[in-house]
């Protein structure tokens, strides 16, 4: 028996995966115990696995978590022959594969510490009918940060009660959204030597200002929402525009089929953020052959297609996007091409600290903006980010 832990992607995902695991058990004669972790408990639970060497044999881990588990000497690496049996590095999205190599932790003979499984990116969702009523051309509506602000202004002027809805409470995906604007303006989160933060430099600040300027178009009904509430508001037809992951497409179809007929997607302005998750084998695992067989099975084309159809998650294998199930769908064509040129967060041991502090700062920025009757958004951003930068620079300097 081997145990697999995954993050909670919803009932549809879990059911689709359980069906796949039943097939694996029938053909491989290996029982697989499935454990589903909530996003709130996932990190501390997996840290316990890393510290005590006890628990699941294989786990789905967030792409930004890999470096820290490698630093804890908790993962079993994948060597060259094992990678070859998985199809080779060239089968996967380049940015996702690079993340699995864990940056500064390269060692001779080790090809990767984690295998890309699911991809995640951020998309703009909009309602065609409302842009049409506002006289906005969807082809150019979101082409740049300025164009997006102009689109929201046109929606507001046309009487749209909720031009845009965004999560403004503390959620990690705010940083995923913001990254597109920051990178698009030529900014970075940290300096190349990883010794100082770079998000307070002029180019990065310009991108961050542009993202938080979206707050000017958050109506009273679209404020102080978490991610679930924000997505629900759009899926139920109560907002004209939002930013979310690829799963919102399926959520809209299920929650409000009539409204979803008017839903379309566009790439956010700037550089596309790519996140997602990887599969790791923990160092304490003794059932190596069954574990490797399960990883091969879960990243196979058939398994990735089945999961994508049921959950809205994206494959990480390039050849899957060429299959008929994806190649004839304009949505997957747009996303698949963009994933090959998108970016991930920096890969180093202290990124988790930087990400946590920036996530806190983003929530504080939104709180300050939404509490002020006429907020000076740029001054608020400067104050909050400069405070965080001072503390982080002191830590990074000694890394």
CATH superfamily of the largest domain: Periplasmic binding protein-like II
Tally of domains: 2
Strand content: 5-15%
State the share of residues found in helices, binned by percent.
40-55%
CATH top level class name of the largest domain: Alpha Beta
Using the alpha-carbon principal axes, give the shape: globular
Structural class: alpha+beta
- Give the integer mean of the pLDDT values: 90
From the alpha carbons, calculate the radius of gyration and give it in angstroms: 21 Å
Write the layout of secondary structure elements.
Elements: E1 2-7, H1 11-28, E2 32-37, H2 39-52, E3 58-62, H3 66-71, E4 75-76, E5 78-79, H4 80-85, H5 94-100, E6 110-112, E7 115-121, E8 123-127, H6 128-133, H7 145-157, E9 164-165, H8 173-184, H9 202-212, H10 227-235, E10 241-244, H11 248-255, H12 257-260, E11 263-266, E12 274-282, H13 288-298, H14 301-311, E13 314-315, H15 318-321, H16 324-327, H17 330-339, H18 351-371, H19 377-396
Parallel strand pairs: 1-2, 1-3, 9-10
Antiparallel strand pairs: 3-12, 4-12, 5-6, 7-12, 7-13, 8-10, 8-11
Polypeptide structure, described:
With 399 residues, the chain is α+β, with helices and mostly antiparallel strands. It has two domains: 2-120 and 275-339, 3-Layer(aba) Sandwich (D-Maltodextrin-Binding Protein, domain 2); 123-272 and 347-396, Periplasmic binding protein-like II (D-Maltodextrin-Binding Protein, domain 2), CATH 3.40.190.10. 49% of the residues lie in helices and 14% in strands. It is built from 19 helices and 13 strands. The protein has helices at residues 11-28, 39-52, 66-71, 80-85, 94-100, 128-133, 145-157, 173-184, 202-212, 227-235, 248-255, 257-260, 288-298, 301-311, 318-321, 324-327, 330-339, 351-371, 377-396, and strands spanning 2-7, 32-37, 58-62, 75-76, 78-79, 110-112, 115-121, 123-127, 164-165, 241-244, 263-266, 274-282, 314-315. Strands 1, 2, 3, 4, 7, 12 and 13 form a seven-stranded mixed sheet that branches. The chain has a four-stranded mixed sheet with strand order 9-10-8-11. α1 (11-28) runs antiparallel to α14 (301-311) and α18 packs antiparallel against α19. The chain is globular and about 65 Å long. It starts with a strand and ends with a helix. 46% of the residues are buried. The mean pLDDT is 90.
């Amino acid at each position: 028996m081997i145990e697999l832990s995954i993050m909670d992607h919803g009932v549809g995902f879990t059911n689709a995966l359980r069906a796949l695991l039943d097939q694996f058990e029938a053909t491989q004669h290996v029982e697989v115990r499935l454990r589903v972790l909530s996003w709130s408990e996932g990190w501390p639970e997996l840290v316990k696995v890393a510290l005590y060497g006890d628990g699941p044999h294989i786990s789905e881990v967030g792409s930004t978590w890999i470096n820290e588990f490698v630093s804890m000497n908790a993962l079993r690496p994948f060597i060259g022959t094992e990678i070859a049996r998985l199809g080779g590095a060239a089968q996967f999205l380049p940015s996702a594969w690079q993340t699995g190599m864990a940056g500064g932790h390269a060692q001779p003979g080790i090809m990767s510490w984690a295998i890309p499984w699911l991809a995640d990116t951020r998309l703009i969702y909009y309602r065609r009918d409302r842009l049409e009523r506002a006289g906005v051309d969807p082809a150019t509506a979101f082409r740049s940060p300025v164009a997006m602000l102009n689109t929201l202004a046109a929606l507001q002027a046309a009487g749209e009660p909720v031009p845009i809805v965004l999560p403004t409470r503390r959620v990690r995906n705010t940083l995923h959204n913001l990254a597109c604007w920051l990178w698009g303006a030529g900014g970075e989160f940290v300096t190349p030597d990883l010794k100082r933060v770079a998000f307070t430099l002029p180019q990065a600040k310009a991108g961050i200002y542009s993202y938080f300027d979206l707050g000017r178009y958050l109506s009273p009904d679209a404020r102080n929402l978490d991610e679930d509430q924000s997505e629900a508001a759009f899926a139920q037809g109560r907002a004209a525009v939002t930013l979310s992951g690829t799963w919102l497409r399926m959520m809209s179809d299920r929650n409000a089929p009539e409204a979803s007929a008017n839903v379309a997607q566009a790439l956010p302005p700037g550089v596309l953020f790519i996140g997602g998750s990887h599969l790791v084998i923990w160092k304490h695992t003794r059932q190596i052959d069954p574990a490797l067989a399960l990883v091969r099975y879960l990243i196979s084309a058939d398994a990735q297609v089945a999961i994508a159809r049921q959950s809205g998650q994206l494959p990480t294998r390039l050849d899957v996007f060429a299959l008929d199930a994806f190649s004839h769908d304009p949505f997957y064509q747009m996303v698949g091409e963009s994933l090959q040129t998108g970016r991930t967060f920096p890969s180093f041991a202290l990124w988790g600290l930087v990400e946590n502090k920036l996530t806190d700062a983003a929530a504080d920025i939104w709180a300050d903006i939404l509490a002020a009757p006429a907020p000076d958004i740029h001054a608020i951003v400067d104050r909050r980010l400069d405070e965080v930068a001072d503390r982080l620079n002191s830590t990074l300097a000694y890394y």
